Fold this protein.
Amino acid sequence: MSEKSIDTIQMRRTFLKGAAAIGAGSLLSAEQLYAQSAAKNLPPAVPEWMQRVGRGVVTEPYGKPSIHEQNVVRRTVPWLTASPISSISFSPLHALKGIITPSSLHFERYHSGIPDINPDQHRLMVHGLCENPLIFSMDDLMRFPSVSEIRFIECPANGGMEWRGAQMEALQFTHGMLSCSEWTGVRLSTLLAEVGVKPKAKWLLAEGADGAAMARSIPIEKALDDVIVAYAQNGEMIRPEQGYPVRLVIPGWEGNTSIKWLRRLELGDQPWHMREETSKYTDLMPDGSSRRFTWVQEANSVVTSLCPEKPLKQKGYHELEGIAWSGRGKIKQVDITLDGGVTWRAAKLKGQVLDKALSRFSFDWNWDGSPALIQSRAIDETGYVQPTLGQLRKVRGVNSVYHKNSIHTWQLLASGEVRNVQID
Amino acid sequence: MFKLIKLSLILTLAIAAPSVVASQYAIGTNASKAEIAGWDIDIRPDGQGLPVGSGSVADGEILYEEKCASCHGVFGEGEGRWPVLAGGMDTLTEDRPEKTVGSYWPYVSTLWDYIHRAMPFLQPQSLDDDEVYALTAYVLYLNELVEEEFVLSDNNFAVVALPNQGAFQDDPRPDTNNVRCMKNCRDPESVKVIQDSTALGVTPVDHLKPEGSVQADEPLLGEETYIAACGLCHDAGIAGAPSVTDKAVWSKRIEQGLGVLYDHAVNGYQGTDGVMPAKGGNASLEDKAVKAAVDHMVDLVNQ
């Protein structure tokens, strides 16, 4: 360290003491500097970006968000997993609008990283208990009549860090293993008709072309129902993170069943009991027994307009908004409480309310500055009412990891800050 | 004529009834037996799919130490957060259950299948069938489910049952029965916050804190970082670095806004009169320390 820098610091400390003694003084803080530069663009000044020309066409041939949105990205919790190659990232739900998740922000889950697949050299094989085992190229798959449907995909571990207590200080981490896209592809039932399913076939094994050869057993009833062999997402070919060039989309079921980088479908008369449906994605109960094949994502909801990332900046009107979804069908109703569940009021559903998709709810509210305990409660078209955490824990204890779809609590403080809490 | 159509309809239905109508589009190519055999890697609990072969615990031990122990631990105890393979017997009802092959997995076939399809983590599908038998045998041995002399093969595969096989049941949900209550749903006095996530401090939320607040948390962070990492060049203005005593040079930079200054300091900058290496060449510095140092430098310039 040079003598000069020591002197500088001593001078600065002396100066700071003096400044504190005489009040504001002439020292400009970082915040004051920022305010000074902002004033150049605010009324009555003419903003600097109006005083010059901007960038031309195809400056960004693919396009990307404003540099001022750089904080709106997928994020991970590094201590959750051993390696980012087998890990999960979370969608920034607090910053999203409507019901579609931009493809770049769709949450990620890999069991052995993202493969780089050449679509010309990729094949989907369908075999097993069928009349005519077939191999499809991507060109083949895209010749079939297609469907486009908006469906959510959610990891069953969404919220799973909070079985024992509130742990995550952000909506992105409490609920962000959830995304919703428009998926385009061929109905799985169309492909199965093409190979001719034998009557003995009761199960379907789906397998990915990643390093984990990720595989799950699907019962034939679901396979013949609403499953899509999807090659496009939100209007373009599926992203590598989401299974390029082709994946399953199994509507309403836990995300890992929607096998990505799909390469093989085998028809059989029994389930296979793969690692990802025995060791993982099974739910341990307090008596030591475990639930297997817990496929459906039950009705769930969360307030997104107000959360730890989005404190309230002022009193007055606030549109309390959020998302609700159910793996069993459409959302029928969402209710809001501001007092931790003593009194509930009906929220409005707005925009499109679709089967097994995110739905958006809205509640007009004037915040008077009082603290509040805010919750949302979803009801789906089967009449299922989203449970309280206490109700879930009573049946399942705290070690089942998956499928924690309980009513979520945000604590709004008088300062406008929002905390992730649990209430007794 | 009418009768004929009716008869042919009945015939069509009779033929189609056993399976879903096949090949409406005639798209795709037939999969040959060899093509299917190359890709059909799955193994079922009843042994369907198992190739002919065998492997001993002794051979498995050598392979395990070479290819598996660095992540799963010498005794299957798991390094870091990599999966624990052995032990944990009778812990499933405890507060912190240990779910291993021995304590939790229902089927040996899953072990064979998974080692074959996905392990070792960095070289999946690199093991031959006998190696997979040997490693499966060794993981069973680590769980004290077979003896040291055991040799696993396609012939004796069915004799090893895992202890937890009977503990799995199909999904019974819905298993809760909440009701849509609207008024007086609970005693207001009973509503108590039992846990606040901020107390734990385990969430990576630095990105949520306003940039100006860094110094408030750690008042000396900027000064200390400056002295350790920045002052060498920026005190006197070495290697094209603007000296903090040069108000004229700095005022132009400050006009660009703090965001730009932070960006250049954290990520580096190549200018016409010099180079700013990312974090002054100290890659181990946290971003917030570099930003605090920038704040400190701006304050020095303004003195």
Summary: The first strand of chain B starts at residue 29 and ends at 30. Residues 1-20, 212-216 of chain B have pLDDT under 50 and may be disordered. The domain at 54-167 of chain B is CATH 1.10.760.10 (Cytochrome Bc1 Complex; Chain D, domain 2).
